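Input for the complex:
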Amino acid sequence: MEKAKITEILDEVGTLLELKGENPFKSRAFHNAARILAGVTEDLNELVKNGELRSIKGIGESTAKIISDLVTTGSSSDHESLKKYFPAGIFDVMKIQGMGPKKVSLVYKKLKIASIDDLEKAARAGKLEKLEGFGKKTEENILLGIAQVRTHASKFHIHIAEKAAQAILESLSTHKGIIRSEIAGSLRRKKETIGDIDIVVSAKSKDAQSIMKIFTTHPNVERITGEGETKSSVVLNSGINCDLRIVEEKAFPFALNYFTGSKDHNVRIRSLARENGWSLNEYGFSLIEPGKKIKPLPKSIKSEEDIYKAVGLQYVEPELREDLGEIEASATGKLPTLVTWNDIRGTFHCHTNYSDGHNTLTEMAAAAQKLGWEYLGIADHSKVAAYANGLTEDRVKKQHKEIETLNETFKGFKLFKGTEVDILPSGELDFSDKVLASFDYVVASVHSSFKMSEADMTKRIMKALKNKYVTMLGHLTGRLLLERESYPLNQTEIINAASDLGKIIEINAHPMRLDLDWRMVKYARQKGVLIAINPDSHVTSGLTDVKYGVGIARKGWCEKRDILNTKSVKQVDLYLKK
DNA sequence: GCCGTTTTCGGCCCGACTGTTTTCAGTCG
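Predicted:
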């Protein structure tokens, strides 16, 4: 069984235990195990065979048994017996705002509700309000929650969320009482997809009410879902939930840190505080048992840096706060130096209006130069990509001529001739070797037949990788959210092969390809594989929007040495000279 | 259920808001 499926089952076990009303720490143990397992790069079969599962922190006797059963037999008796308590549809019901484990469990037991449709029918018939702990208002909220799940995806692209958040922030800034204000949450952590927007501001309490008013009456607000003195929640007309928190100035760094998350990162920081005998919340440090000091409370915390220092850590950039090793790295002074916009010299996966980009070669070159870049790689689609107006051999020649002519006009800037050649289902490439040889570099990508088995898809890509003209494997992600294109892939095998063959792996080249799994990046780095994270103009309107769509434009995606910084650009340049 | 070197038992992060209660459980982040 594949690892992704196993982590899904562990999560399911955790959720089923919540529904059963088990000890919350017990169910959390399974969710933790799922998350931890997802970050394991070693071969699962080997780990099971050698009995090494238990050596992973967070995997104990029960979770190890489930994992090992799933790996060896494809099913787990513990999971199967838990499943008997609730039908599968129950997981959908859990997605509705306001429906947590207790309420879901109750409506199932009393009314046999096990799907969103059932829930809607019961709400419309007024059956829910008669249940204990429910009422008229709860019923209305559930109907709203159902409507929301149906009309909006629960996640939004970062650039959509960013624009929506900025609009709110701008309105708030008109209030003179605001001392500091910042976007927090996953948007600050620069996740590729955003669940909701968190904004934190500091102000005197006498100003709180009028600040809240600006927020809840903003023209972009569709409806208010919660309104209090320090916290309000709204749904914006784009469908994104947005929360505003108002705290006193001295609490601002704590609130910012708290609401930036991630949840798992916060839990770790709080545990560190506890070791000193302190409790940490969004307002500050306090002693767990007043009078029984273990370590004196830190004084004058003015910034997040001060908080990290107080618990013995180096400052951790928001982009790294996922509890995926950053706490340990920070404690030992081994945090990576992150890429910044200034590190970028160019990129290699751009489309133009030759295929499905929105801009001409001239416009793309001008935009790249305006960004201060030294080069831009043009990689339009190949002929089989008819949906994207892929280039035939003749049009490739025409584009090459145009690039050559343009290059003569540049000073300190160069356009590279590339292609994003389709990897056909057979693993053959969409251009002959002779045509491929005419490019400066070749990106090979899968754009069709996504429903192959993991083994076949991996074989297909491996075959393409072995072609000597292929420089880079295009958009390897394995998890493509919000998009129809999605395919299974043995990432470990591909990275190993790229390492052996000296190929580059490109991640998230496409603004629509989301949720980079940086654990995979970490593994690739261990294997010495050069990773290129590239913007392109595929969906957005050219390079003007490019900084939203891509990792390379944002710090935090990887370490500098992974990407097209001075050192690795030289490596890429070497490729180009070959 | 998982962890731990001062602990093999006892703790595990913490608070705001809602809607239902009539003092608080449930949900969320």
